[in-house]
């Protein structure tokens, strides 16, 4: 049974943000915790901590501070959709966020998407408006069990290179 879910988390960015990382829509746990990639099994912040060689405390304020200090903007492609729990493959009836809200108020020059659903939706709905091609990154969700932490670190290292 899918429910209509509305994106309620604000985008994380400031005027100095240089790269934007977009997911699909916050998971049930992320909505519960009030912050992106908050499921205890999600490896997003663990991977970023390793590639930047900086520790990130497991609280919303520390995560936000890390992102801002490293010129990383974070948001999601989807503004609202029907979804079954946190299953991206069940997503339908999508309304997308206006990604240009961030782009027009920052220094974004690279966009990354986490997972196939975010990449496909961004390419279809957002790219025609932003004119910035997205770079696909694999999902850090524990549901993507075939992707080892080492492989994620290897794939996500492109973020660090993009900031230099």
Going by CATH, the architecture would be 3-Layer(aba) Sandwich
The shape, in one word, is globular
List the secondary-structure elements in sequence, H or E: EEHHHEEEHEHEH
Extract low-pLDDT stretches: none
User: How big a fraction of the residues is strand?
Assistant: 15-25%
Q: Please identify the top-level CATH class.
A: Alpha Beta
Helix vs. strand class = alpha/beta
Count the beta strands.
Answer: 7
The profile of the biggest β sheet is: 4 strands, parallel
C-alpha end-to-end distance? 45 Å
- What percentage of residues falls in helices of 4 or more residues? 25-40%
Under CATH, the topology can be stated as Uracil-DNA Glycosylase, subunit E
CATH superfamily: Uracil-DNA glycosylase-like domain
Average pLDDT: 94
Tell me what you see in this structure.
The protein is α/β, with parallel strands linked by helices. The chain has one domain: Uracil-DNA Glycosylase, subunit E, CATH 3.40.470. The chain contains six helices and seven strands. The chain has helices at 28-33, 44-52, 60-69, 100-103, 116-130, 149-163, and strands at 3-6, 19-23, 72-76, 78-84, 87-96, 110-114, 134-137. The chain has a four-stranded parallel β-sheet with strand order 3-2-6-7, with helices on both faces. A three-stranded antiparallel β-sheet has the order 1-4-5. A hairpin with a 2-residue loop joins β4 (78-84) and β5 (87-96). α2 crosses α6. The mean pLDDT is 94.
């Amino acid at each position: 049974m899918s429910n209509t879910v509305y994106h309620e988390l604000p985008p994380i960015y400031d005027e100095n943000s240089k790269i934007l990382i977009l997911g699909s829509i916050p998971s049930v746990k992320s909505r519960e915790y009030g912050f992106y990639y908050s499921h205890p099994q999600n490896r997003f912040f663990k991977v970023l901590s390793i590639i930047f060689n900086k520790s990130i405390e497991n609280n919303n304020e520390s995560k936000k501070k890390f992102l801002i200090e490293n010129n990383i903007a974070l948001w999601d492609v989807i503004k609202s959709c029907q979804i079954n729990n946190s299953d991206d493959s069940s997503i339908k009836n999508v309304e997308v966020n206006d990604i240009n809200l961030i782009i027009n108020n920052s220094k974004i020059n690279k966009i990354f998407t986490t997972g196939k659903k975010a990449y496909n939706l961004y390419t279809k709905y957002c790219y025609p408006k932003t004119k910035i091609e997205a770079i696909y990154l694999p999902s850090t969700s524990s549901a993507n069990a075939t992707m080892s932490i080492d492989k994620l670190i290897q794939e996500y290292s492109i973020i660090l290179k993009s900031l230099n």
